[in-house]
Amino acid sequence: MNGHPAVEPTGPTAAPPASRVLALRGATQAASNDPHEIVRATTELLRELVTRNALDPADLISIWFTASPDLTAAYPARAAREMGFVDVPLMCASEIDVPGGSPRAVRVLIHTHSARPRAEAAHVYLHGAASLRPDLVTGAPAGSAEA
Ligand SMILES: C=C(O[C@@H]1C=C(C(=O)O)C=C[C@H]1O)C(=O)O
């Protein structure tokens, strides 16, 4: 051996990691299967996630979207690109067509670097999608879309 420890020291004296990975969920409901409405609803959802979690766009790792099978007029990822997330890997897919599933639903899963612990993640469910996960719907801050 060369005298150096094989691994970085751990325990109370070790420096905290500069950054952790945080996953955030969200969902919303578009007014209709129209490109403008899909982009509008998705933009609102992304803005709320960014605001409520104080996200720095430079920290974003990737963004996954699903659209319910009745939404076919546009890719929700378009909203992210139009917001300036042009170098963030994006993906869209069709949601599972479960009987009774939420209509016109855009769902999102964001992975980001963040110092925020998972317990403090603010997941965002807007409009008709709020009924999907009532356990995750928290009070919206002043000035939010729901106000
Ligand atoms: C309930 C939701 O819809 C679907 C069901 C999920 C679940 O059961 O955990 C997760 C994502 C969606 O596929 C949601 O978007 O949160």
From TrEMBL:
Its EC number is 5.4.99.5. InterPro entries: Chorismate_mutase_AroH, RutC-like_sf. The keyword Isomerase applies. SUPFAM superfamilies: YjgF-like (SSF55298). One of its GO terms (molecular function) is chorismate mutase activity. PROSITE patterns: CHORISMATE_MUT_1. Keywords: Amino-acid biosynthesis, Aromatic amino acid biosynthesis, Isomerase. Pfam families: CM_1. It catalyses: chorismate = prephenate. This is chorismate mutase. The gene is aroH.
